[in-house]
Amino acid sequence: MCGVRAALTAVQRATPLRLVTVSKSGGAVDAAVAEYAERISRYTAWEEVTVRPNPRGAAASDAAAQMAAEGERVVRSVALKDHLVLLCERGREVSSEDVAELLRLGSPRGGALVFALGGPYGHGAAVRARADDTIRLSACVLNHQLARLLLVEQLYRGWTILKGEPYHHQ
User: Fold this and answer.
1) CA triplet 131, 137, 139: central angle to 5 degrees?
2) Which of 91, 145, 147, 152 reaches 20 to 30 Å from 29, CA-CA?
3) Nearest alpha carbon to residue 159 among 38, 21, 42
4) Does the reported pTM lie above 0.70?
5) What are the residue boundaries of the structural domains of the chain, listed by start?
6) What is the pLDDT of residues 98-122, one digit of tens each?
C-alpha cells in the first residue's frame, strides 16, 4: 500500500470533474452530496449536470427510446476532449485506490474527467459508444441517489489518498 500511495501522491495537475446524472433534480441526499462536492472543490473544479429522465418525445413505455433520448442529452454534455467514465452495474468493480488512480490520470486529452449515471433503464448505445471506461462502485445495484452520494464520497476520498491526507485510513 505504501508504494501505491507514494505513486498516487504524484498528481501533476488537477483535472476538472463533472458528474452527469440522468435523474429528477432534488432528492434526500442532496445536502450530503453538496458537502462532498464542496470538499472536492478544494482540489479541483467541480460541476454537476442533471439530465431529466424520459425527455419529451420518448414514450414512457418504450425503454429503448427513453435510453436513446437520455443518452443523446448525456453525450451533448461531454466534450470530445473529456474522459467519460460510466457508472454501470456491469462495469469493472473499483476500489478507493482505483478511483484515486482515475483522478491521478485525469483526462489524457486534456478535458474534464466526466462520470455519468444513467437513467432508470441504464445507459443508451450512444453513451456506451462514447465511454472511455465503465466502472461499478459496488456489486450491489444502487439507486441513483445512493450511487451519486457514494461516487462523490469516493471522489473526495480519492483526492485525500492522492494528497496523503488522513481521511482514508489504510
Assistant:
1) 110
2) 91
3) 42
4) yes
5) 2-163
6) 999 999 999 999 999 999 999 888 8
Q: Is the dihedral of CA 32, 30, 18, 39 positive or negative?
A: negative
Question: Domain 2-163 adopts which CATH fold?
Answer: Alpha/beta knot (3.40.1280)
* pLDDT tens-digit map of 34-93: 999 999 999 999 999 998 887 665 566 788 888 888 899 999 999 999 999 999 999 999
Mean pLDDT value of segment 7-34: 79
Counted residue by residue, the chain has a size of 170
Give, as one character, the DSSP assignment of residue 46: E
Which run of H or of E encompasses 169?
none
**Residue the block writes with cell 441526499:** 29
Residues 91 and 111: their CA atoms lie apart, in Å, by 22
Q: State which H helix or E strand residue 80 sits in.
A: none
CA dihedral 152, 135, 85, 166 (to 10 degrees): 40
